[in-house]
């Protein structure tokens, strides 16, 4: 039941490694939430799975009879001047009654099938996109921030539709509620490395909290409990941390913009600046924490 297998996979652009994904196994009915900071390589990994960009190194292989679908493509490919009914018929040879019954499974009932695409709400468009994806025989669904720009009722409708999807899901999302409802696994990207957690998002958070508690409970040496008089004060460190956090956010935005526009050489340069700023930020946070704990 292998759906996707990677071996020593490294993801990036122009030879520059953005993410070391390593050896991954995605099996049938797995629902994976891909999480991590902006610019960490989440969307790049999806694009690698979609074969839009090649791996920097390593391999990625689909299982037998796997059909990959990208939610954003199905969503953006809707014809605004078409009706819901006509849009579905472009993807199937169903008889009219069968097509209407199929649409009813996605909550398009009665006169709803005659609505124009341009008049649909965000949630309705999302439901129709999922209906098309399922109709096209997709059994590995990739999603990148699917609830962005949706109101709360539309988000709930999308969540219900995803719960009813009979296939494997690989999803990038900052929507913690959606992730907690959908995910059976969490792929966590930190420090340019992907770590696999088998379990729900709530279980993942509990494991993270337990690990943090164990670290906090470790005894520290007396030499570390004292604050060197030459060390900056916690207040000064906080100001420096805030400035570096702003720099990291700006570099994240620049990196994503470079990737989106295909400026891979620029992306590689920005990535180096981002990593340097991130390392500096982590060092400052450690110094601040040692003073506050002391």
Structure write-up:
The protein is of the alpha/beta class and 294 residues long. Among the domains are: 2-66 and 139-203, Rossmann fold (3-Layer(aba) Sandwich), CATH 3.40.50.300; 234-293, Methane Monooxygenase Hydroxylase, Chain G, domain 1 (Up-down Bundle). The chain is 48% helix and 20% strand. The protein contains eleven helices and ten strands. It has helices spanning 42-49, 71-76, 84-89, 96-105, 122-135, 152-163, 176-182, 201-217, 222-225, 234-260, 264-293; strands spanning 2-13, 16-22, 25-27, 31-35, 57-62, 68-70, 140-144, 168-172, 185-190, 193-198. The strands form two sheets. The chain has a six-stranded mixed sheet. Strands 1, 2, 3 and 5 form a four-stranded antiparallel sheet that branches. A hairpin with a 2-residue loop joins strand 1 (2-13) and strand 2 (16-22). Helix 5 runs parallel beside helix 6 and helix 10 packs antiparallel against helix 11. The longest helix is centred in the C-terminal third of the chain and has 30 residues, at 264-293. The radius of gyration is 23 Å and the shape is elongated. The model is unreliable at 222-229 (pLDDT under 50).
């Amino acid at each position: 039941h292998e759906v996707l297998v990677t071996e020593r996979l490294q993801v990036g652009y122009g030879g520059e490694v953005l993410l070391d994904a390593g050896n991954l196994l995605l099996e049938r009915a797995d629902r994976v939430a891909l999480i991590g900071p902006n610019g960490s390589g989440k969307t790049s990994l999806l694009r690698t799975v979609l074969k839009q960009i090649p791996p920097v190194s390593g391999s990625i292989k689909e299982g037998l009879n796997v059909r990959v679908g990208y939610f954003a493509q199905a969503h953006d490919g809707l014809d605004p001047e078409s009706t819901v009914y006509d849009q579905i018929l472009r993807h199937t040879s169903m008889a009219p009654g069968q097509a209407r019954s199929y649409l009813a499974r996605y909550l398009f009932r009665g006169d709803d099938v005659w609505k124009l695409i341009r008049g649909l709400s965000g949630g309705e468009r999302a439901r129709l996109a999922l209906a098309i994806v399922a109709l096209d025989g997709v059994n590995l669904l990739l999603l990148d921030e699917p609830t962005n720009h949706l109101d709360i009722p539309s988000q709930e409708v999308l969540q219900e539709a995803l719960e009813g999807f009979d296939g494997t899901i690989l999803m990038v999302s900052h929507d913690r509620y959606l992730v907690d409802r959908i995910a059976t696994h969490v792929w966590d990207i930190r420090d340019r490395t992907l770590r696999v957690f088998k379990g729900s998002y709530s279980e993942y958070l509990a494991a993270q909290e337990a690990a943090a508690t164990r670290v906090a409970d470790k005894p520290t040496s007396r030499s570390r409990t004292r604050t060197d008089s030459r060390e900056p004060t916690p207040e000064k460190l906080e100001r420096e941390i805030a400035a570096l956090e702003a720099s990291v956010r700006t570099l994240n935005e620049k990196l994503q913009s470079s990737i989106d526009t295909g400026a891979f050489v620029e992306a590689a340069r920005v990535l180096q600046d981002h990593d340097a700023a991130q390392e500096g930020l982590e060092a400052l946070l450690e110094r601040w924490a040692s003073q506050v704990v002391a």
